[in-house]
Amino acid sequence: MPIETIKNRRDFLSATAAGKKFITGSFILQMIPRGQTHPVTNPAARFGFTVTKRMGNAVTRNRIKRRLREAIRKVAPRHILDGHDYVIISRQKALDCTFADLLRDMEFAFSRIPSMKNDKSSPNPHVSAVK
Length: 131
Description:
The chain is of the alpha+beta class. 38% of the residues lie in helices and 20% in strands. It has four helices and five strands; from the N terminus they run H-E-E-E-H-E-H-H-E. It has helices at residues 9-18, 58-79, 93-96, 99-112, and strands at 20-23, 27-33, 46-50, 84-90, 127-129. A five-stranded mixed sheet has the order 3-4-2-1-5, sandwiched between helices. The protein starts with 8 loop residues before the first helix and ends with a strand.
């Protein structure tokens, strides 16, 4: 399954500024419905990956992104919502943990992040609306 990616900075920033987020040990998952930022021309979900230079050199950062993309390929078909943008921000544990642990974190994050209705409060302390 090919993954549709977020290509411009404006879409990354809108997901981090106004989206919902869920924090795990290996990454931070942020989600926003695309209709809030600009009109939806392609209803498929899009993904963006962020790995900072603090994680290591280019080889290390690319390895982390490959692991996250593969985990998305395995988990996303059951959990993604069309017309939404998802940004995954890596943490150091994404490189060090086993792939099974990464998949477990991914499953948990996607199952817990709420769909964006009109509620700004969340009963779960790990899920929050970023303003």
